Amino acid sequence: MDARFSIPRSEYDQRVKCVQQEMQKDGIDLLVTHACECESANVRYLTNFWAVFDFVGVLVPREGKPILLTGGPESYDFAREFAQIDDIRVHPLYVETSAPEFDKPADAFDFTMILDEIRQRFPVKKIGIANPNIIPGKIMEDIKKGAGNEARFVDAQETIMRCRWNKSENEIALLREAYRITEEGVKQAVEFIRPGVREWEVEAAWRGEVYKLGAEGTSYSVWVTSGPSTFQSLCKSTDRVIERDSMVQLSLGAKYQGYCGNMCRGIVLGKIPDRQLHMMQVCMESLNDTAAMMRPGVAFAEVYDKFTAKLKKNGFEGLNLYGPAHGTGLQEVDGPWVDNRGSMVFTPNMVFNIDIWVADSEFGIRYEDGVLVTRTGLEQLSTWGREILYR
Predict the structure, then answer these.
(1) How much is the pTM?
(2) Among 62, 136, 302, 381, which residue carries the largest CB count within 10 Å?
């Protein structure tokens, strides 16, 4: 593999140090993060390990080495092969829902045992839980049992995200490749579209191309919609036959070495209603307008306010779900969101998806592309087909 398409162990060690520095700012003694197959980003950021079937967690003490926890001998062996971390342990609660009673023995640890080890070095008074909305109740109960009555818990998602928002040169190289692969697949999918094919066949054409180019998987559960289902922001490809005089929505993203590309496009077959065509045009213009504004030092709120003003001017006020861009990286939506609810500004090495989604109860369209904020401006990671595409 080309060396620029890999992240060295030293960078994972540096990530742990970054998180520990942020923990010190927040007064956190121990940070606990959790992952499953569909929400793997925090753990993969720290270790390059992703869960399959079982769960996985990483404990980062305020000083010293982190610990990776996963369930059962299968996941233990998997983690030993791929995790960029030395201390890997089995916790019996980190297993899939229908896990067997394993015949192969494995030393097991609970949180009381682990926290007793850490408390030999320093008191654990404040525990931060990253992505607390996805941690299973049983595991959380065991953490609280091990922590005892004196420890208090805080939401620590932003603690780790402050390290993840600005990407390293290695991460940027991986993201460029993820978008290149995604874009080549989109070209193939558009070429395949015609009346009479089914939505899932278009998705399959895209998947075949991106896997040939080295994708490890998809950035999310990708989909192709057509006709009456295009107003749905989230959907799935179905057996629906693509018809003449309709619009097809592509929502497609390839994952490369853990990093996510994503592109969304609308394709017109024949003639569609004027309002739908106007909606597509406004969304495309909004994507280009947003890209033109995204520069270091520009406030998120300024970009958001101009985006919503354009929607209002064109009769689409209130038909957006959120602002015009969001961070991306190890997840297709990696935060932060570009809105007017805070004081964030764009800074170099932030990577975003410009994500323009507008829909009413009849029509919907999403145009989406990746961009990198540089020291002097913006690098666009995907641009092909940024027009109303006709087939």
Answers:
(1) 0.96
(2) 381
